[in-house]
Amino acid sequence: MSLKDNVNYVKDEISSEEKFLESFVKVERFYKKNKIVIISVVVIIIALVIGFFVTKSIQESNKLEANIALNKVLDNPKDNEALNILKDKNKNLYEIAQYLNSKKEGKVIDVDVKFLKDLTAYQKALEENSAEKLNSVSMQNDFLLKEFAIFNKAVILTENGKYKEAKNTLKMIQSDSKVNDLVNILKHYLATK
User: What is the 3 state secondary structure string of 57-75?
Assistant: First the structure.
């Protein structure tokens, strides 16, 4: 290498070091200028992360305590301490425990748990052999046993001699339904009516 090449090499190295120092000075100025904002953002992010994990931990703890309390209530329905824990930790499980305990005693209570409430209404409609109540239950879009309720409505209509209404009711059940086998049997019966 020639002397000129060496000088150029040294100039390039010095230039790159100057650029590095210049960018470092810019970052330092930016930090000094926005020091409070940067520290605040970092503190907020750390607090959010800690809060998220603490909340998740508390929820898991509550879930575990509620499940243990539910098991105690199922073993001993008169365990008031476990019932109070359930009431505090998980309102839905408390309502389910109350429902199960009342059912053991031969009573039926109203509950606010969505699907359990729907199933209770369905059960009452079947016990009363009421096509109107089955119709109101089956018309709810998110009812779990919607198609089965429609089928039971058709059975009740058939028992009451309302064959045309029963046929129309069966048309409401889709062909890919799980109750389709039962629907086909009832349709065959109704074919001669």
Answer: HHHHHHHHHHHHHHHHHHH
Distance between CA atoms of 42 and 58, rounded to whole angstroms?
24
Name residues of the chain where pLDDT drops below 70: 1, 3-7, 10-11, 106, 108-115, 140-144, 193
Contacts of 100 (CB under 8 A, 6+ apart): 74
Entry pTM: 0.50
Query: Tens of pLDDT along 36-53?
Result: 988 999 999 999 999 999
What DSSP element (H or E) covers 80?
Answer: helix 80-89
Dihedral, 162, 164, 166, 171 alpha carbons, nearest 10: -170
143-154: pLDDT as tens digits: 667 777 788 788
70 Cβ partners below 8 Å, 6+ apart?
Answer: 82, 86, 93, 96, 97
